[in-house]
Amino acid sequence: MIRTHDCGAIRRKELGERVKVAGWIRFSRDHGGVLFFDLADCNGNTQLVFDPEAMNDITEIEQMDRTLRSFGRESVIEATGVVRERVPGTEDPRNPTGEVEVLIEKVRSLNSSKQIPFEVAEQKNSLLPGEDLRLKYRYLDLRRPQMVGNLRFRHRFLSCARQFFDSQGFLEVETPCLTKSTPEGARDFLVPSRTIPGHFYALPQSPQLYKQLLMIGGIDKYYQIARCFRDEDSRSDRQPEFTQLDIEMSFVEEKDVQGMIENMLAHVWACVFGTELTIPFPRVSLNDAISKYGTDAPDVRFGLELVDVTSIVKGVSYEVFKKIINKSGIVICLNLKASLLSSSLSEANALGRKEVDRLIEWAKIQGMGGLTWMRATEEGLSSNIVKYFSGEVRAKLIDAMKVELGDLLLFLGGSEMQTRRAGGALRVKLAKDIGLVNGKRHEFVWVVDCPMFKKDPVTGRLEPFHHPFVRPARGEIDPDEDMSAVGGLSYDLCLDGVEIGSGSIRIHDPSVQRKVFGLLGMSDEEIESKFSFFLEALGYGAPPHGGIALGVDRLISILLGCESIRDVIAFPKNKRFQSLLDGSPARVEESKLAELQLLSLAEEKSDKGDLEIK
Description:
The protein has helices at residues 58-69, 131-136, 138-141, 145-167, 208-216, 254-272, 286-293, 310-313, 319-326, 353-365, 391-400, 416-433, 510-519, 524-538, 552-560, 590-595, 598-607; strands at residues 18-31, 34-41, 44-50, 76-85, 100-111, 171-172, 190-192, 200-202, 221-229, 241-250, 283-285, 307-308, 330-336, 372-377, 380-382, 408-414, 444-448, 453-455, 462-464, 490-495, 498-505, 545-551. The chain is an alpha+beta fold and 614 residues long. Among the domains are: 12-111, CATH 2.40.50.140; 302-440, Gyrase A, domain 2 (2-Layer Sandwich).
């Protein structure tokens, strides 16, 4: 090693020692001929000082001065010197090395640096450059302490998870990245085969089939930090390549898989945060999640639960509600308790009329006709629409919504799904606006009792609610029954209102699996073409099994409070799924296409009129 200490390791215990450090020059300062340098690496930074009065040879002083002044920002240097205390009053309590400095005796350049396109040093109140610039120069962005900290946290989290699974007898097994293209819910990335022209591999959307095959192979307990690939539309919490913490277990029920994940997270929590995680996590049915929280990924850190008041307001003379209910719509209500409101919003500790008007406009942007409100005063419920509600109806609303003095009732009405979705967005907006999530601890929740199927709203065809490998709750499917009523043994894990994991107990009976494929519209020929290998494997004594996959990037970004998962990935793609660092995706030479025989295949199709070459 060309250094004895990293830049974050030197403390008072090293006083008087001769050390050798190496790193990047972040800052330099000249105080009357005494030169100071902040030398940094991924572990921290140390102050170096060149003090001419500490040297005797004038020639050495002049040479050292010239050398040090030639170093620019982000130059890489190696310095040898003695650790000494900083001058009283110049200590930096924010820096772990802030009580000491290294008096330079020798220095040499390891590499120079061009002028950097943006500041990588952490500075108070400094603004980050645009994300595209950061991604183009990601290797510089990674030098920022925050980025180093994000990757260090990610490493620590996964390291602790590995420790836990090892202690529970799991085997870490790698599954293939060149696989068969099978329908799993998203578009595949395809890889052409050179040795078998016209044939393609697919990059795995998940290790789903292979981890089930491991269970058939008797592995019993499997896990993997798995790379997955999906050609999906861009979102802040999506990347075309991402990482899953993937597990599968044999001879288990739902509670066993859920309990294993809870215990793993509790172990990681203790290792990473040094605090105890409360387990088991609460369970909420999918129907309750949608009706109470307006989403299948509820944030349970605060109240503001939605209440369906359609039956209460049915028959009132308020024309807006009458039209909605007559069209089979619903009316939901949210009680913004006076006790939750910030005193900064108004002197009366309640949302003023201007704030309510802004909420009405916000509701219109969400596609709703608007928003209706009532406030609880000493005289009872008050608003410009109260006259349309009888005393009996108002009393029922007060009872159903547990109304107290100062509370604000907010009503939304319309078609069921749109209204519940808007209600879910409203409760999250209010929670953020009035700070209900500030300082709150993270809260996990399981969403259970999910259906097997859902219907495409356009075609009416059945689609899997999760994926086609979920075992029916009753273990079997009657083709004559209502498919919308068939429950599946699947479950989602949510954290702070974001789904971070999805799992299920799998179908292990090949006849049931074949039925499910058929219900999803696959012909016998298609089933054989895409899944014959899997169905055959199920026929060789497949054990009951189940598992789950957690989205590592999404989970880590939530725990670190990042706005985008790109901040917890070393080399992510941008919003258009481009790598600005290396320019991918990019065109390739025709010689490479010819080697893969893609050009000849395209020309052959063009001759048949199937494809036009441009």
